[in-house]
Specification:
By secondary structure, the chain is α/β, with parallel strands linked by helices. It has 2 domains: 131 residues, Alpha-Beta Complex (Quinone Oxidoreductase, Chain A, domain 1); 128 residues, Rossmann fold (3-Layer(aba) Sandwich), CATH 3.40.50.720. 24% of the residues lie in helices and 27% in strands. Strands 3, 4, 5, 6, 7, 14 and 15 form a 7-stranded mixed sheet that branches. Helix 3 packs across helix 4 and helix 3 crosses helix 7.
Length: 306
């Protein structure tokens, strides 16, 4: 089968190769991939030297071989899935516990944008606790996670201020009800909750706008710049604040269950994935470059037409 594999080239990061079709473990289903989403974090992973590794964590398609142990969706079921890797291919082996059935009303292109970004947003907001009436500052808001967080948080009654570099990148966030600012330093605080995914100076600017005893949840470092904290700066506002590290895989709920929640929200019109780019998978390398340079708002989805 055809699959996209890392090239080690900084410009053309992936290329097609002929690889063996995956042989699923007993608890895995074989999925014929119709669409997949690429994430900015994967562009960073492609820079490293990882022999044998193939990218791809967000897929949607059709189960062509059900899990041998009887778990998960049956053969012939339309699904969305979150494999640990190797999803940018014609076929992917996906753990049954990381698959959710798709109703006919949800296109595969929409579903492919759900797993990584949607799971992160859903679990991040669970970690944040009740949102009604709380003020929330969200950095790095113009990516896939940010759009999901903003729509879900505003629907839950939060007053969201979203950081997006340009008005165009923040347009959809504003439609969801957020106040949009170009950087954390421009945000009017104090905030009850800060959701921070950028790192560097943006982290410290966001932290400074947290109210006394507020909470900052740190869920990424997209700038790839480490954070420097000054103990005494906390006395200027966020005194006794809590900083919590967050990673979406550290959760008490099953991936399949949370994917089903996301699919249900989409099918009922309560969640609207922001897909800033849809293209044939032959264009994956170019789309990855645009995603890395922040020329894509929301998610980018590639389709496999066979």
């Amino acid at each position: 089968m055809k699959a996209l594999v890392p090239t080690g080239d900084a410009r053309e990061t992936v290329a097609f190769a002929d690889v063996d079709e995956p042989e699923p473990r007993p608890d895995e289903a074989l999925v014929k991939v119709a669409a997949f989403s690429v994430n900015r974090g994967e562009t960073f992973q492609l820079e490293g030297d990882r022999p044998g590794w193939r990218p791809g964590k967000d897929v949607a398609g059709l189960v062509v071989q059900a899990a041998a142990d009887g778990s998960g969706p049956a053969c012939g079921t339309r699904v969305v899935g979150h494999p640990p890797s190797a999803g940018w291919a014609e076929y992917a082996a996906v753990p049954a516990g990381s698959l959710a059935e798709l109703p006919a009303s949800v296109p595969v292109e929409t579903a492919a944008a759900l797993p990584l970004a949607g799971l992160t947003a859903l679990r991040l907001l669970r970690a944040a606790g009740p949102l009604a009436g709380r003020t929330v500052l969200l950095t790095g808001a113009s990516g896939g996670v940010g759009h999901y967080v903003t729509e879900l948080a505003t629907a839950a009654g939060a007053e969201v201020t979203a950081v997006a570099a340009t008005p165009e990148r923040g347009r959809r966030l504003a439609e969801f009800g957020a106040a949009v600012v170009p950087d954390a330093a421009s945000a009017d605080g104090p905030f009850d909750l800060v959701l921070e995914s950028t790192g560097g100076a943006q982290f410290t600017d966001a932290l400074a706008r947290l109210r006394r005893r507020g909470t900052l949840i740190w869920f990424g470092q997209a700038s790839r710049t480490p954070v420097t904290l000054d103990f005494f700066r906390f006395f200027d506002g966020p005194e006794s604040a809590t900083i919590r590290h967050f990673h979406y895989e550290d959760a008490d709920t099953a991936i399949a269950d949370d994917l089903a929640v996301l699919v249900r929200l989409v099918s009922r019109g309560r969640l609207h994935p922001e897909i800033g780019r849809t293209a044939d998978w032959a264009e994956t390398a170019a789309v990855l470059a645009d995603l890395r340079e922040r020329r894509v708002r929301g998610n980018a989805v590639l389709t496999i037409d066979r």
